[in-house]
């Protein structure tokens, strides 16, 4: 079984973000970097699937500067077999259609049975890339997956929809799966596996060799929302406070009718 | 000299920090209050993550990583729970490393591999009522008895005691020899006839780490459990403690970093005179001093770790690292309590625990005074 996992390196979400000089993305200085959380579920599911079927080869793919190799090493330490690094010093300027185009170009003719990726990235959050890859390759795509099982070339998946509704479906491979919170608990990369990861194959390809599509959208502006006023502090004794709170909940929310 | 982490070291720090925050931190306060050692969490999980044999070669069950990686792991654990940090440090530096450094192949096969894999836990018994900083004052004896040795005496303040499976124990084998020359090192297994545990210490800090007396009453051990050569025990102890200092320095560093993180976070939130207290220069200067001392200690530790991993002499450097880190931990945690004020003095915030935990780092595995002796004698010999 051949499996592809597509991951992205994103800033730690507890970082203090600033808008960059172009005004269309965040500045990359003074940030700590890590694997996109949803992609960790993707890596974990791929490794669990390989453990289940007891044979297989997992390629982890990541687009970005040399800095992303550290995040790729984590995926290799978690159990991926080889790395495909697509070198791009300015990946933040590539919109989702271009990213999907690069991944599809890489995956075409390689015969992947399954492609796992996060349902969205924590920084751009478009949620488009996984399904676009499926579309470009002409294979099925299932998004926001919270349960996954595989047997005899068929995937059964549970999807999470709005309002807590779930949908179960069955789909034949090859298929793209985008992974949602709750699918699994990603394993820690153990120290011996971290040490072994440095011996695994990690090949770099320049993005120019794989980028065959043009941008379809452009980010015009990125900005912080205006600061709103602080919270409202209620004063008085307990009975007064309760009355005031009930009035607010009635007037300003739908919590109390 | 510039220290830049390798990718492996960065990944290790990320992994241990995530594990420490998600799994070790939630029970740290409760374990401290109840003086409870949770072996499944504080040792078995470390084994699963491959941390119990960090610095040993793969053929002996280790991860084949370096001493800087070891320091990173102990630091990150100690940042949230100093008891978990010292459990690893005592197991690895004191309970396992002597077997790696001085053991023969059979001893490495039998004892080091299960220790490195974390199937067994290690401990180290040097201190006695009359022998602490002065290891030459060892009164515990070992005399030949048939094919083996008969050990009598007791050791106090033994970290991991009761829980550990093997103990590196120092005993006098030649009463006629000069103080330091008549001591030998032995590997003694829990369950050996005549080996028992005395009282469990009730401590000021690192309360979730067990500290007990170990007692030998006509304890019979096989001849092959002599570690290194007969009479070489003082050398075994001193070489072991060189490495141990890196572990305790890293523990102190982690405690200090945890206290600084708590102080910075509190200073940003706490408002007095309508401003967060971090906006006052008096508080900023304190935080600046704390961070600077921590960074200096960190670089001394990495320097000692760098030298240890490359087979360079590091006795003086590890003494400097331990002295600096432990005194920094005491200062920084005391300042952190001060910055948190009344809240810092309560058990609702972790800094009082960190302050209690920090004190022992100035005492065990060589007091600050002994570190100064080591450094001073290397300057003047």
CATH architecture of the largest domain in chain B: Up-down Bundle
> What is the C-level CATH assignment of chain A?
Alpha Beta
Major beta-sheet overview of chain B: 4 strands, mixed
Number of domains of chain A: 1
What is the end-to-end distance of chain B?
27 Å
In helices, the fraction of residues of chain A equals 25-40%
> For this entry, what is the oligomeric state of its chains?
heterodimer
- Biggest interface between protein chains, with counts per chain? A-B, 16 and 20 residues
Describe the global form of chain B: globular
Count of individual helical segments of chain A:
6
Unreliable stretches of chain A (pLDDT < 50, length at least 5) are none
Helix content of chain B: 40-55%
Average predicted local confidence, pLDDT of chain B: 95
Strand order of the largest sheet of chain A: 9-8-7-10-6-1-4-5-11
Main structural class of chain B: alpha+beta
The Cα radius of gyration of chain B reads 21 Å
* Gyration radius from CA atoms of chain A, angstroms: 22 Å
